[in-house]
Structures are given as structure tokens and as C-alpha cells.
Design goal:
Helix content: 40-55%
Number of helices: 50
Number of domains: 5
Radius of gyration: 47 Å
């Protein structure tokens, strides 16, 4: 009845069976006795269900722990006491002897010399041997040490088993405090027994390895073992279980941070501190809850356990939390005296811990980086990492160009990495592009952060530079360190970085894993900025056109007939690349270019040419001698990436009759037969169809082709192919036997790049010794160096800066015309802008010496001295010390007669206020525009010498359709002077032109100064980062266009010597001169005058391409040309790639890529002085020359045969002597110059030079001419 009344009899226990038997034998008459017994037993029955006599056995479990702890402590203390007494009493003599040895070191040497006795030797040997106790101790230390793999596994296993034992405690806490389970039937008791056996073994290892046994005995982990391990063995022996102090296993949670550090999970100090605080707080909380659970469910011993209450363990956890937080709802509270006494002391420590730990934990969690996660790569989607200068401006410009809709589908995710969290504006920008943009806070100098953004699987890493920093060299050093860090972490990653200074690019070559052939690129802003400005000196407005081509702009439609309408139509064009269809294989470049423009509405300007040695080079408008190979990569100007696909899908069999280019898509025909035909056969088929004969009667056909002609013609009918001189092309093809290469299409739309030098396959054409009519061999001097060692630039021996300095009076006496004036602001402390990059394109070797424009620098001499080390090897350069704000200095250099005035500043980044960064350049520009000039100066014609296309007669200078600029006969106001101004802040462009209507918030490319080519900002170069990533050939192409031919080989040379090295002219170096250059074609006179008045641009394009191999790609038109009334405005704007039907006006200037003229240099020397005089006195339009009449060609053709024979004999003789040559005469003419009224001495000098059929060289070229 007692057991049934309590309802707590555990099943299967022997004591419960015995109690049940007793109750069954009691007769009904003893009910009164039983009721009395119930009053005594009932209070204890919930805790002692299996006790026959109602006695509890908790003291046995507690005694086992206490005896173990105090017994071991007594033994340790006793051992230490005996050891101390043994040392003091029995070994005092030994200490005395040792003290004597220490106090008398002089006697030690004598003692060492004497022979030791046998006893001393044995003692020494015993001391030197390692005892077995020491060996066991070392072994135990290795086993529990976390420095070894075994130790780490053992430590982690002990922690895991401790947490497992704590879990078993949580399960058993729902049972009574004391029960009588059967060990063989209770599964949790068996598991707990196994765990404690392992704990006992581990305790033994720790005890053996401990150096100080006393401190080990008092450690927290040892105390936990004392009060948890012995009670388990007692419970097995007594067949009784006591929940007891098993909650102490929660103290093992304090080691949680150590375990995570062993597993390399925690690496940062904040994470370790956070885990430490949390583990200490939680372990203390759970341990205290376990004690409250024990005493409240047991009661006070001195009260015979009558005041107990039933609380679950989790209710005790709740009680402790509300107590620590001082809330104390009162729904649960302690009733026992032990519980209340414990709560008194716990609330002191618990409140202090809660008040200190919890805020610190919250602070650590709150201070965790919001962007401190890791990037998760998506299968099938590439990602790039962008780092460096991450600001709202740089990121917005980058994303605007990178994610432009004209790029078709950009399946690339952009991961930004920066060590500073973004501000609200930048964060909002990231959220707007959250589908393709992610931001992570960190540094690329930290390998851990590089691992977070998965740099090893990234497609590329882009590094942005701060273009507005005060110290460009420091900014470049930072980016170079970023490159080193990234390459050190993953050498194969492709890196595209921005550099501010050109001379800092050399440091990238010191990185072993830097390889430009694998896609690594450095976009030097100073180099490209100077190159763009230099090209504007050769063809005004070209900087704007090139900047728009490499930037992604959306088409803005304007209905009104204004200049903005035509300008914006051209702005929508960009540069794209695509592989050409196999239908173009074997055709010459001009033929394919014409076909693409007329048929596909695409402008092809360059190709990637692969030689037989599989070396790649980018050829810009190469000419007729280049035949397209299979898999040739073309560079197109188009408004959309989808349009360029026409060049890849074009099929002659399917698309020959299509007039709408939008219908040219991937065809369904099987072009296997045509594609498998050799280039040789395809060229013969095209040739025979062009000659109009049947394939069997044509002499061009071979027998092997005749046999298959019927089948081929039925399968693929061939229409007329626009191949000029097909028989000549075919013979050249048969002689060269090119191997058609089929290179794999790369992952990015581009091919392997190489230096833009000419291919070895084309060397026969470029060799000057093989050019008919080359009269310059007689003037060659093997001892004169006129070009640098690469043959890409004009060169002269280094000159001292004092020899090129002009005073104001000397500059006034030297009449300058057709020159370039560079106004530079700078001082001793200014950062170098890199004037060499401005001069190099103007000294490219594809100009003849007499075509070089003299360059005059006007600025601080202290600053120019610092730049002169990089300029002293260029000819026709002079310096006028002064200031660009001085009108006297500007008049001294004849700024009204210059071809271009460039305004630069090296002080722009030293001013904090962005609106004042361009104050010097703006003031100089407005100063020049407000100047007035005397009309009498107009007698000095500011004409640029014309460039004659190859093949035209050079007997008269009036034979070239190409010129530099169309200028007024006299410049009376500074507003008509061609000026290009460099700006740092885009918004300052509104101050350059006072007659424009540009809003201050208007984007730079929409403003009038930029559209006219009179302003240039470095911000337009930001788009090159995206363009270079999508096509690694783009940067090579633009550097070839604007730098005049700078190659990676030249950069390596400049890195070694920091100066150009002169070289003797060889056929190989002279071949490098044969590359196209940009020029401007006039329409109001000359061979294209008939098209200038209402003609179509497409007709002009085809005529220039067929006749002179000149590739037209834009128009430089007067701003008010669309108006019906005449206008006095001389400002022009740029129109890029007009459509075929675009109507021309006579005042238009056409941008074109013209071939190098081998005969221009030698013909210049044959011109008499009288021809120059007549030319200078002619009308201004004489700079735009006309095509020579046919009778002149016939007359000159008769003498050409004799000259060819003479040249052949001379070439044979010169080749046998194996001499090196130059192709420029030593007495090359300068530009057209006449003299102002001057002194008698100066007039005598003029007469002296006139007698030698040459004009006075400008800028002291009399003494230093190269």
C-alpha cells in the first residue's frame, strides 16, 4: 500500500517486489496500524521508493567523492612532507658539497683533472640516464597535449564525452533524485558508466603528466571528476542511483573555446573572446541550476528532508535567470534553507556576471562586421573581385559601364572587397544591384580575406586607383602591394590594375607571376591620358572619339535637327570584337572591311593576325597584303554586341541576297563542303567568277579544282566577290603558302596578345630594300642613329636642357608655325605628369622627320628639369621658361600659329576643394581665348604639311588629300586657336566655354567642350577596366592607337634604363615604321571634293578604301553646319561611324587611318625650294591637294622602269656589303616656316640656309638637328 500510495515503485526492482509481498500479507484488521505508518513514511516515499526501512543512501555517494578528494590530497601532502624531510635530514651533506663547488669555481678545474672514483662515475651515469618514470611522464604529456594529432583527438573526445554525460544528466533529471535502477537493464546507466571509465583513464594520464600534483588535484576539471566518477561505481555496487553532483559536468563547457581553437575554427581575438564569455556564462548558469535542483528536490537534512519541493531542472534554470537579472517574478522560488542560502551568495556573483558579461557579449555580437561573411560561388556563373579605391563615384562609374545593357547578357557576379564598410549612399547602390553585386569587408593584403571572396576561383581581380590622390606614387605603391599579395596567394589569377604613373609600371615586371600574355594588364592613366591628348594634336577631336568608343553609352534620340543629334548617334557606338566567318577566309582586309560596312553595317578597323609561328599581333587597317585566316578575330565599331554577331554568322550562300542586315542570323545550311575547301580553292573560285569565264576555260583554274567545280557550284552558288586584282592576290597566295590556323575560341572574347609589331610573314612588304623607287639608299648613313632600338620612335642623342631653352626674345625671333605648344603648371614639389607619354606619339616613326611637329613647353623650368631626363632623346623639342598665364610668353611662341595648344597641370591633386582643382587650367584656357592678334601675322600660313597616300606621284606637294588641320588664313582671336584642356573635376567643364548651355549636372560626354574635343578628363578612362576584362585585346589596341607604338618590349627596356636607347636602322627595325596612323581628310578640295557637296559618307568610305587603303571612321564637322544661314563659329564636334547614307558637307574633316608612305621621305628631299615658296604663297586650301592628272602618271611611269633597274642593282650591291641603313635624309626639311622682320645678322643666316635649299630649322634645330 505504501508503494502504491506513492506511485513511485520502479519496475523490476527487488525492493519493490518485497514491499509488494509485505502489503499482500497484511490482513484487513491492521488498517489502523498501516494508516499510522503512512503518516511517518509518506513524506520520504517520493525520494526513497526502494528503501525497506525508509533510510536514504545519498551520504554513501557523497562520501565516496569526499574520501577520494581528501584522501588523495592527504597522500600528496604526506608525500611532499616526507620528501622534504628526507631532503633536509639525509642529504644535507650533498647540498653542502654543491654549495662549496659553486662558491669555489677555481677549484672545479683542478677537480675535473683528477681521476674520478668509480662511485662518482656511476652516479654521473645514473644522472645522465632518463628514468622510466620520466619516460612515462613524457609519454602521458604527449598523449594529452593538443600539439600532436593524438592529443588533439583525445582532448576533443573527452570534451564530447563530457557533453554527452551532461546530456545523460538532463535525461535523468526528470527521475527522482535517488532511485534503484537495474544496471543490466538501464541503458543510460551503462553509457554513463562507460563514459566515466574513459574519464578515469584520462584522469590517470593527466595525473602522470602533471608536473605539480598538488595543483593538479585542485583543478576544476579534477574536482569535476572527483564528484562525478566515484558515485557511478558506488551506484553499480549498491544497485542504487543518486543524481547528486553530476551537474558539475557543465563546467567542462568552459573549455569550449579551446576546443574550437584546436580545430582551427576560432582564429580572431573577438571570436575567441565571445566564445569564452558565452561558455563561462552558460556553464555557471547550468551548474548553479543543477545545485538548486538537487537541494530543492531533496530538502534540508536537518529537517529530515520534509521541506522539499518538486522542481524540474529546467524550472531551476528559469529561476536562476530571473534571479541573475533581478527580475524575480515570484512564481518559482527556493523553499529549502540550503537553496535560499545558495541564492544569497549566487545573486551577488550572478548579478555581477550578468551585468558585465551580457553587455560585452552583445557588444561583440553587435560589432561583428556586417559584411564579414564569405562568398558562395554559384555553379555556372563567374565572379570577379574588385578592390582598391572603393567609393561611391568609382563604384558607380564602374557598374554603369560593366553592367551596361549593350554588353548583351553579363553573367558575371561582382564581389567588392574593401577594409572600410560602405556609407549609406554606397550601400544603397549595392542594394540596387544586389542580384549581381556583393560587398565584403576586408583587405586583399590578408590571405584570410582573399579566401573569403574565393579569389582562387575568381575569373579576374580588378584593382581601382584613386585618381585624385595627392601622392600618385604612394597610391601606385599600394596597388602594387595588392598585386603582390593576390599573386602570392594565387599566382594564376588574372589581374587588371590601374596605375597613375607610367614609371611605376616597371615595378610590376618584378613580380614573378605577372604575365601580360596570360591576361594581366596595367592600365596606366597618365600614359593613356597623355596619349589621347597627343592624338588630338595630330587630329583634333580624336580624343573624344576614342573615349566614346571605349565607353558604353546608351542611345539618346533627339528629334530636333541640332548638332547634339548627330553627336549622340555616334556616341552610341562602341568597340566590340568577334570572330569572322569562314566566308571571309582568303580575302584581303580592305575587301572584308568594305563588305562588312556595306553589307553588314559594321565597321572593321583591325584584326588579330597570327603568323606561321603562331605569334599574334593586332594589325590596324593593315592593307591589301594581309589575307584573312580561319578564326580571325576582328575589331568592330558598332552600337550593340548583337550587331557584331553578323560577322560571325555571315554565310555567302545564304546571306548574299539579303539587303536588311538584321536578317543575317545563324543559317541552317550545311556549309561543310565550303568550309572544308582549302583557302587556295576558294580564292580560285572567287577569281574565276570575277573574271566572267567558265570555270573550265579560266586559266586560273587547276585540274583538281575543275573536277569538283560542278558539285561545288550547285551546292554553293558564288556571286561576285569584290577582290581587287584577284590574279595578283592568288599568285601572292601561291607564293606564300600560308597555313590556315584554327585557334580555339577563348573563354573571353579575345585572343592571345602580342606586341603590335608587324608579322614576320609581312616582312617582305615592309623591307625598305625591296620597295621600288626607293631613292633614299644613297642618303643612308650607317653611323647615324635616327630611331630608337625598337624602330618605333624618332630618336636623337641626348641633349642638355640648356641647349633647348629659349628666352622670350629668342622665341620671338624664331618664327614657329604648325607646332604644338604645351602649357604646363608645376613646381619642384609637384608630382610628375609624365610628359614623355605626350611626346612619344608625336615622335612615332611612322611619321617622316619633316612631318614631325615641333614641341614647345611653356612652364616652370624647375619642374621641366625634373621631366627632362625622359625627354632629352626626342628631336624638335624646346622649352620656354615662364608661365602659361603670361600673354607675352604665349605671343613669343606664336600660339596663334600653332596646330594645337595643350594645357596641363601637375598641381591639381594638391587642392582639397574639388571645384578649385582645375583653376589653373581654366584660367589659362580663358586667357588664351581672350587674346587678340594682329592680322598682319596672317602672311605666315599655318598650314600642316600634307601626307600623300602610297602610290601617288610626289613630284608636287599638291598631291595629297590628307592634312593635319584646316586653319584660317590668319587667326585674329584666341577663340579660334585649337586648344585641349585637361580637367580633373568633370563639373568644371562648364567654365571652359561661355557660349554653351551646359547644365552643371550634365555628364561630361554630353557637354559641348568634350564633344568638340577641347576638353579631356581622366574619368573617361574608367571604362577601360570593364573593356579590358571583357576583351584583353582592347587595351593593346588602344595603346597601339594612342601611344604611337609602345610595346611590352619597350616597357621592359624603359624599366631598365628609364630612357630610349638609340639603334642603327636595319630592315627589321625599319619594317616597324610601316604601320597606319590617324589623319584628317578634307572634302572641299582634292580628290574627294565631288563627294563633299551633298555626297554620301558610304561612297566616300568605299572610294578612300579602294583608292588609297584609307579607312574612314568618323567626321569632324562644324557645329553650325546644319544651319541654313552661314555662321562664323569655327567650333567642330565629333560624329563617330556615320551611316552609309549620311550626307556630307564641304567643310567636313574625315577621320581616317592611312597607310605609311615609304616615298614621302625621299620625295621631300627632291622638292625644290621654289616649290615650297609657291606652296606657301598659294591659297590656304592648297594644303588639301588634288590627285595628279593621268598624263603625269604616264610620264612618270616611263621613268619608273629605269629607276627600278637602278634600284635593283643598288640593292644587290648594298645587300652584299651587309650595311645598316636609315631611311631619312640627313638634311630633312622642317615644316613650312617664314621669317618675321628681324636683325641683319639673322637675315644673313636665313640667306645661308636658303642657299642650301633648306629652310631655317625652328627651335635651334640648326645645331642639334638629328
Amino acid at each position: 500500500m505504501l508503494a502504491e500510495a506513492d506511485g513511485t515503485v520502479p519496475h523490476g526492482s527487488e525492493s519493490s517486489m518485497r514491499t509488494s509481498n509485505i502489503n499482500n500479507n497484511i490482513n484487513p484488521d491492521s488498517s489502523i496500524l498501516i494508516s499510522k505508518m503512512d503518516k511517518v513514511v509518506i513524506p520520504f516515499s517520493p525520494q526513497v521508493p526502494c528503501a525497506e526501512d525508509g533510510q536514504r543512501m545519498w551520504w554513501a555517494f557523497l562520501a565516496s567523492s569526499m574520501v577520494t578528494f581528501f584522501g588523495g590530497l592527504f597522500i600528496i601532502l604526506l608525500w611532499r612532507t616526507l620528501k622534504y624531510l628526507w631532503t633536509v635530514c639525509c642529504h644535507c651533506n650533498v647540498k653542502t658539497k654543491e654549495a662549496q663547488k659553486v662558491n669555489n669555481p677555481a677549484n672545479n678545474q683542478a677537480a675535473d683533472k683528477t681521476a674520478k672514483g668509480p662511485d662518482e662515475k656511476e652516479e654521473a651515469a645514473a644522472a645522465s640516464e632518463v628514468g622510466w618514470m620520466t619516460s612515462v611522464k613524457d609519454w602521458a604529456g604527449v598523449m594529452i597535449s593538443a600539439q600532436t594529432l593524438t592529443g588533439r583527438v583525445l582532448v576533443v573526445l573527452v570534451f564530447a564525452l563530457s557533453i554527452g554525460a551532461l546530456g545523460i544528466y538532463f535525461i535523468d533529471s526528470s527521475d527522482p533524485i535517488e532511485s534503484c535502477p537495474n544496471f543490466y537493464n538501464d541503458f543510460t546507466l551503462q553509457i554513463d558508466m562507460a563514459f566515466n571509465v574513459f574519464f578515469l583513464l584520462y584522469f590517470g594520464l593527466r595525473f602522470i603528466a602533471a608536473s605539480d600534483k598538488l595543483w593538479f588535484w585542485l583543478e576544476v576539471n579534477s574536482v569535476v571528476d572527483f564528484f562525478t566518477v566515484p558515485p557511478v561505481f558506488v551506484s553499480v555496487y549498491l544497485n542504487r542511483s543518486w543524481l547528486g553532483l553530476r551537474f558539475l559536468r557543465a563546467l567542462r563547457l568552459i573549455q569550449f573555446s579551446e576546443i574550437l581553437q584546436f580545430l582551427n575554427i576560432l582564429k580572431t581575438s573577438n571570436s575567441i573572446k565571445l566564445v569564452n564569455l558565452c561558455s563561462i556564462f552558460i556553464s555557471t548558469w547550468l551548474t548553479a541550476a543543477g545545485f538548486i535542483h538537487l537541494v530543492e528536490n531533496s530538502g534540508d537534512p536537518w529537517e529530515d528532508f520534509k521541506n522539499s519541493q518538486t522542481l524540474s531542472y529546467w524550472e531551476c534554470v528559469y529561476l536562476l535567470m530571473v534571479t541573475m537579472s533581478t527580475v524575480g517574478y515570484g512564481d518559482v522560488y527556493a523553499k529549502t534553507t540550503l537553496g535560499r542560502l545558495f541564492m544569497v551568495f549566487f545573486i551577488l556573483g550572478g548579478l555581477a556576471m550578468f551585468a558585465s558579461y551580457v553587455p560585452e557579449i552583445i557588444e561583440l555580437i553587435g560589432n561583428r562586421k556586417k559584411y564579414g561573411g564569405s562568398y558562395s560561388a554559384v555553379n555556372g556563373r563567374k565572379h570577379i573581385v574588385v578592390c582598391g579605391h572603393i567609393t561611391l563615384e568609382s563604384v558607380s562609374n564602374f557598374l554603369k559601364d560593366f553592367l551596361h545593357k549593350d554588353r548583351d547578357d553579363v553573367n558575371v557576379e561582382i564581389v567588392f572587397l574593401h577594409n572600410i564598410s560602405p556609407n549609406l549612399e554606397l550601400e544603397a547602390l549595392f542594394k540596387r544591384h544586389f542580384t549581381q553585386v556583393e560587398f565584403y569587408q576586408g583587405s586583399v593584403l590578408n590571405p584570410h580575406d582573399l579566401a573569403r571572396v574565393k579569389i582562387e576561383s575568381a575569373d579576374a581581380c580588378l584593382i581601382l586607383a584613386n585618381k585624385y590622390c595627392a601622392d600618385p606614387d604612394a597610391e601606385d605603391a599600394s596597388n602594387i602591394m595588392r598585386v603582390i599579395s593576390i599573386k602570392n596567394y594565387h599566382p594564376k589569377i588574372r589581374i587588371i590594375t590601374q596605375m597613375l604613373q607610367y614609371h611605376n609600371k616597371a615595378h610590376l615586371l618584378n613580380i614573378p607571376s605577372w604575365n601580360w600574355k596570360e591576361g594581366d594588364d596595367a592600365i596606366c592613366l597618365a600614359e593613356l591620358k597623355a596619349g589621347f591628348i597627343a592624338q588630338s594634336c595630330l587630329a583634333q577631336g580624336l580624343s573624344t572619339m576614342l573615349a566614346n568608343l571605349f565607353s558604353m553609352r546608351s542611345f539618346i534620340e533627339i528629334e530636333e535637327d541640332t548638332w547634339q543629334k548627330y553627336y549622340l548617334e555616334g556616341v552610341a557606338n562602341e568597340m566590340y570584337t568577334e570572330y569572322l566567318s569562314s566566308a571571309f577566309v582568303g580575302l584581303s582586309f580592305p575587301t572584308v572591311c568594305e563588305l562588312c560596312y556595306v553589307k553588314l553595317k559594321l565597321l572593321l578597323i583591325a584584326i588579330e593576325f597570327k603568323s606561321e609561328q603562331r605569334e599574334s599581333s593586332i594589325l590596324i587597317n593593315p592593307g591589301n597584303h594581309v589575307k584573312l585566316q580561319d578564326g580571325t578575330l576582328g575589331f568592330f565599331i558598332a552600337s550593340d554586341a548583337k550587331e557584331v554577331k553578323r560577322a560571325f554568322f555571315y554565310c555567302k550562300a545564304c546571306h548574299d541576297d539579303i539587303t536588311d542586315p538584321k536578317r543575317i542570323k545563324k543559317c541552317g545550311c550545311k556549309r561543310l563542303i565550303y568550309s572544308k575547301m582549302s583557302v587556295y580553292k576558294r580564292m580560285k573560285l572567287a577569281c574565276c567568277f570575277d573574271c566572267g569565264r567558265s570555270e573550265r576555260d579560266c586559266s586560273c583554274m587547276s585540274g583538281s579544282v575543275h573536277s569538283n567545280m560542278d558539285t561545288l557550284q550547285r551546292a554553293y552558288p558564288l556571286s561576285s566577290v569584290s577582290v581587287h586584282d584577284c590574279a595578283t592576290t592568288l599568285r601572292a597566295f601561291e607564293d606564300e603558302h600560308p597555313s590556315t590556323l584554327s585557334p580555339k575560341k577563348k573563354q573571353r572574347n579575345g585572343g592571345m596578345r602580342n606586341s603590335p609589331n608587324c608579322s614576320p610573314k609581312m616582312m617582305s612588304r615592309h623591307d625598305p630594300l625591296l620597295i621600288p623607287g626607293n631613292e633614299q639608299i644613297e642618303n643612308m648613313d650607317m653611323n647615324v642613329k635616327r630611331y630608337d632600338s625598337t624602330g618605333m620612335f624618332h630618336w636623337c642623342p641626348s641633349k642638355d636642357i640648356e641647349k633647348v631653352i629659349l628666352t622670350r626674345s629668342e622665341a620671338s625671333m624664331t618664327v614657329l608655325s604648325g607646332h604644338v605648344v604645351v602649357c604646363i603648371f608645376g613646381d619642384v614639389t609637384s608630382a610628375l605628369v609624365g610628359l614623355r607619354n605626350l611626346v612619344m606619339p608625336l615622335r612615332a616613326s611612322n611619321f617622316h622627320y619633316h612631318e614631325l611637329k615641333p614641341i614647345v613647353f611653356v612652364g616652370s623650368l624647375d619642374y621641366l628639369r625634373r621631366e627632362w631626363e625622359t625627354l632629352h632623346n626626342f628631336p624638335k623639342v624646346s622649352i620656354l621658361p615662364g608661365t602659361p598665364l603670361s600673354r607675352a610668353d604665349l605671343r613669343a611662341v606664336n600660339i596663334n600659329l600653332c596646330d594645337m595648344c595643350v594645357i596641363l597641370s601637375a598641381n591639381q591633386n594638391n587642392i582639397e576643394d574639388a571645384s578649385l582643382q582645375d583653376k589653373e587650367c581654366i584660367l589659362a584656357s580663358l586667357n588664351i581665348k581672350s587674346m587678340q592678334f594682329d592680322d598682319s601675322i596672317g602672311v605666315l600660313q599655318a598650314n600642316s604639311q600634307g601626307f600623300t597616300p602610297p602610290g601617288m606621284d610626289r613630284s608636287s606637294p599638291d598631291s595629297s588629300p590628307v592634312h593635319g588641320f584646316v586653319r584660317q588664313a590668319s587667326v585674329t582671336t584666341g577663340s579660334n586657336i585649337p586648344i585641349i584642356t585637361e580637367l580633373v573635376n568633370d563639373s568644371n567643364v562648364q567654365f571652359l566655354d561661355q557660349d554653351d548651355d551646359d547644365d552643371p549636372d550634365t555628364e561630361l560626354y554630353l557637354t559641348q567642350p568634350f564633344a568638340c574635343g577641347t576638353a579631356f578628363a581622366v574619368s573617361v578612362l574608367d571604362s577601360l577596366m570593364s573593356a579590358t576584362y571583357f576583351n584583353d585585346n582592347i587595351l593593346t589596341l588602344i595603346r597601339t592607337l594612342v601611344t604611337g607604338g609602345a610595346t611590352p618590349e619597350l616597357e621592359a627596356l624603359l624599366a631598365e634604363e628609364n630612357a630610349l636607347r638609340g639603334g642603327y636602322s636595319t630592315p627589321q627595325t625599319l619594317a616597324n615604321r610601316d604601320r597606319c596612323r590617324v589623319a584628317q581628310l578634307a572634302l572641299y578640295d582634292g580628290p574627294f571634293a565631288d563627294l563633299g557637296d551633298g555626297g554620301c559618307y558610304g561612297d566616300l568610305f568605299c572610294k578612300a578604301l579602294k583608292t588609297y587603303n584609307m579607312l574612314c571612321f568618323g567626321i569632324y564637322r562644324l557645329r553650325d553646319a546644319h544651319l541654313s544661314t552661314p555662321s562664323q563659329c569655327t567650333k567642330r564636334y565629333v560624329i563617330t561611324n556615320p551611316p552609309y547614307e549620311f550626307e556630307l558637307v564641304p567643310t567636313d574633316l574625315i577621320f581616317c587611318l592611312m597607310q605609311f608612305d615609304h616615298n614621302a621621305g625621299q620625295s621631300r628631299t627632291s622638292l625644290s625650294h621654289s616649290s615650297h615658296s609657291s606652296h606657301s604663297s598659294s591659297k590656304k586650301s592648297s594644303s588639301v591637294h588634288s590627285v595628279p592628272p593621268s598624263n603625269r602618271q604616264n610620264r612618270s611611269s616611263k621613268t619608273r622602269e629605269a629607276r627600278d633597274k637602278q634600284n635593283a642593282t643598288r640593292m644587290n650591291r648594298m645587300s652584299q656589303e651587309k650595311k645598316w641603313f636609315t631611311d631619312e635624309p640627313e638634311n630633312a626639311y622642317p615644316r613650312n616656316i617664314q621669317i618675321k622682320p628681324m636683325s641683319t645678322h639673322m637675315a644673313n643666316q636665313v640667306n645661308q640656309y636658303k642657299s642650301t635649299s633648306s629652310l631655317i630649322p625652328p627651335i635651334r634645330e640648326v645645331e642639334d638637328e638629328c
